[in-house]
Design a protein that fits this description.
By secondary structure, the protein is mostly helical. It has one domain (18-172): Four Helix Bundle (Hemerythrin (Met), subunit A) (Up-down Bundle). The chain is 61% helix and 3% strand. The protein contains eight helices and two strands. It has helices spanning 2-5, 19-40, 45-48, 59-82, 93-96, 107-125, 129-132, 147-172; strands spanning 135-137, 144-146. Strands 1-2 form a two-stranded antiparallel ribbon. Helix 2 (19-40) runs antiparallel to helix 6 (107-125), helix 4 packs parallel to helix 6 and helix 4 (59-82) runs antiparallel to helix 8. 26% of the residues are buried. The mean pLDDT is 97.
Length: 174
């Protein structure tokens, strides 16, 4: 079950990242919408409505979740850049995965991600060393999260959910 939940392993924050690491993370974020579109374009409605694991979200919900999550991440970056160590707003991912638009075609979230990631990556590439050290505080864990780790976490996040889709397709022979 752990392999189905975390097919690429769990994200591990680092004390620092090299510029090569950060460039790699940003490239992965930038390419995610196209990779997600490619992974899902030929799936039928029945396939899109298949959970990637027992008790997990459907492929359709996963795609909509990525858009929701990455919109929140973009806003968190903006807060970190414009406020002093902000306490961010958390959200209930499970409840968000149940709202009405998560039954819509995944193409709407992929289209949103294409625009969001284009803008987000321009911002990420413009960050200075000092800005990369800025942090937010998570309201549930009270942990401080550095901007450079947020970038790595969301590169991982996209790859993590793409792996859910890829592994499901492989297991099902799609």
């Amino acid at each position: 079950m752990e392999d189905l939940r975390y097919p690429i392993g769990k994200f591990a924050a680092q004390e620092s990242h090299t510029s090569e690491d950060l460039n790699n993370f940003i490239q992965r974020i930038q390419s995610l919408p196209n990779r997600l579109e490619s992974a899902s374009k030929d799936l039928t409605d029945s396939q899109l409505d298949t959970p990637y694991r027992d008790g997990g979200w459907t492929v359709r919900q996963v795609i909509h979740h990525i858009a929701d999550s990455h919109m929140n991440a973009y806003i968190r970056v903006k807060w970190m850049l414009t406020e002093s160590t902000p306490l961010i707003k958390a959200y209930d991912e499970k409840a968000w995965a149940q709202t009405g638009e998560t039954l819509a075609a995944p193409a709407i979230s992929i289209s949103l991600l294409q625009s969001l990631h284009a803008k987000w990556c321009v911002l990420l590439r413009a960050l200075t060393h000092d800005q990369l050290q800025k942090q937010f505080i998570h309201p549930d864990t009270r942990k401080h999260v550095a901007l450079h780790n947020l970038i790595g976490m969301y590169a991982w996040h996209g790859d993590h959910h793409l792996a859910h889709i890829a592994e499901l397709k492989k297991r099902m022979g799609w």
